[in-house]
Amino acid sequence: MTKSAVRVSPLFLALVGVTVLGGVLATLDNNAARVGGIVLIVLGGWATSLCLHEFGHAITAFRGGDWSVRSKGYLTLDPRHYTDPVLSIVLPLIFVAIGGIPLPGGAVWINHHALRSRRTESMVSLAGPLTNLVLGLLIATAVAVVTMPIGLSSGLSYLAFLQVIAFVLNILPIPGLDGYGAIEPWLSGPARRFGEKARPWAPLVLFVVLIGVPFVGQAFFGLAYFVFDVVGGNSVQAYLGQSLFRSIFGFL
Fold first, then answer.
1. Which stretches are transmembrane (predicted)?
2. CA 112 to centroid of chain Cα atoms
3. What is the C-alpha separation between 45 and 37, in angstroms, rounded?
4. Cα(245)–Cα(39) distance, rounded to whole angstroms?
5. Predicted confidence (pLDDT) at residue 26 exceeds the cutoff of 60
6. CB 42 within 8 A of CB 6
7. How many CB atoms lie within 10 A of CB 202?
């Protein structure tokens, strides 16, 4: 039943195609083509991962009892179904383009009353960031075991690092993020009501603190680099990929 419920959107396949095209361009000797390829790898790959992140939430909810996600189109991997396309796709891509912290992206609306247990609710919330972690692991492993041109390996390394950042960010137990969603079913009534009130503004406060308070930002990225090392990422190549990626936007 689960397999038959999944219908992969052509738009999602187009995003994958953009990422693959970027990989091809990144292998060329021409510097402009190589940098352009890295940009396509990162932007196309990040947009693809946003869809997979939200699909992770949706397919876990579907298996946990909320069949409404199928009628809402969440099992199609179509980015148009994951809330507002500007706030959920374009704005996060802009943040990635300028080298900032990747925003959580989209969201799927789950009927929590249909889920079978509090454990299922927690797993639905964790499915998204765990998808990013697995993607980061797979990409980092591919870079480590496959000999590839430096343009391709650096672009993929930066994309893998972005997946790890997304995992570390989303796993934080802050209202509005998936980490809080994982613990919310186990909280007391007053705590959950406070979380509901804090949900709209808590992530914004977090981003301001990460950007504006140096030691907090350093601690966050220190944790992200630690996790990146754990999954086998190459920090030097990730930094090179980020530098080449940002160079096309004139931010070096």
1. 86-110, 130-152, 158-183, 204-228
2. 23
3. 11
4. 5
5. yes
6. no
7. 16
Distance CA 30, CA 32 (A): 6
pLDDT confidence of residue 249: 67
* Residues designated catalytic: 54
State the Cα–Cα distance between residues 229 and 234, nearest whole angstrom: 7
Residue with the bigger pLDDT between 214 and 106: it is 214
Residue-wise burial string across 204-235, b where 16 or more C-beta atoms lie within 10 A, e elsewhere: eebeeebeeeeeeeeebbeebbebbeebbbbe
Determine the Cα–Cα distance for residues 68 and 28; give it in Å rounded to an integer. 46
| pTM, to two decimals | 0.91
3-class SS at 24?
Answer: helix
At CB < 8 A and 24+ separation, what contacts does 210-219 make?
A: 210/101, 211/100, 211/101
Token pair 């374009």: residue? 90
Tell how far CA 134 is from the center of its chain: 11
Question: Which pair of tokens denotes residue 158?
Answer: 């930066």
pLDDT in tens, 73-105: 999 999 888 865 555 566 566 666 655 666 666
Helices (H), 101-149: 118-145
Task: Give the C-alpha separation, 4 to 69, whole Å.
Answer: 14
Element (H, E) at 236: helix 235-247
